[in-house]
Design the sequence.
């Protein structure tokens, strides 16, 4: 069972019970969007205390709807999750920094009132300071280097995509270096920007080695997925060992 209840103008409560089916997911989203069409911002409480599982088709259906809803995430500043399952708490810790336009937090099943109070706090968080996404000087000829520090805007994504696209259109294989200081969110328009998406897909075919320098712990699980679905050699280095990252790209042993 997958249902929702519009508790108030600023709070939506979603309840998942038992094993969720594809039809339930489809029906849920069909009814959800008209119900909250008037809400510029609304908090969400997701009750997963009785959640057991989802069928394979239900997972695919949900992923399809969630991908389409990503540009709408700014409408949900706070998402509170009621759960007693550790794996859900682990997933929340991974997802929360990836979606900084939405603050997520897990609560014990007995803490419903605290979860509601958290979800109903619709104050706009201050945008992360920093220069956002931009190209930086590379230590190695032919290696594309960029830095992400703070909020990424659509024009910044376009600029970086253009540099990568030149390499891709030339049919070259190339290496890249990324310094990720802090991910402070992004303009939702980036998600539907054709050039940026084409660059990401093209890079998966032409990128050979990718060195990532960061102290952001959430990056590792995401890059683990990238390793599993591409042939790109990916290595992550802490900020204190940035030179080791450049040495790895040069092919110099760290031993």
Sequence:
């Amino acid at each position: 069972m997958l249902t929702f209840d519009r508790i108030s103008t600023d709070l939506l409560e979603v309840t998942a019970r038992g094993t969720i089916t594809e039809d339930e997911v489809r029906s849920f989203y069909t009814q959800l969007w008209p119900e909250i069409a008037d809400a510029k911002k609304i908090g969400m409480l997701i009750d997963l205390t009785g959640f057991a599982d989802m069928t394979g088709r239900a997972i695919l259906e949900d992923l399809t709807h969630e991908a389409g809803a990503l540009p709408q995430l700014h409408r949900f500043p706070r998402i509170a999750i009621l759960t007693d399952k550790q794996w859900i708490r682990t997933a929340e810790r991974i997802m929360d920094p990836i979606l900084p336009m939405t603050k997520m937090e897990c609560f014990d099943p007995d803490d419903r009132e605290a979860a509601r109070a958290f979800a109903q706090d619709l104050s706009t968080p201050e945008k992360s300071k920093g220069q956002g996404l931009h190209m930086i000087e590379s230590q190695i000829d032919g290696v594309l280097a960029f830095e992400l520090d703070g909020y990424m805007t659509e024009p910044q994504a376009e600029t970086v995509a253009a540099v990568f696209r030149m390499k891709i259109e030339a049919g070259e294989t190339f290496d890249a270096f990324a310094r990720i200081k802090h991910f402070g969110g992004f303009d939702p328009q980036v998600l539907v920007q054709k050039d940026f998406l084409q660059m990401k897909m093209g890079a998966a075919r032409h990128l050979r080695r990718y060195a990532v320098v960061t102290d952001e712990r959430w990056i590792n699980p995401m890059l683990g997925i990238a390793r599993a679905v591409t042939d790109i050699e990916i290595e992550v280095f802490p900020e204190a060992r940035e030179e080791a990252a450049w040495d790895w790209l040069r092919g110099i042993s760290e031993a």
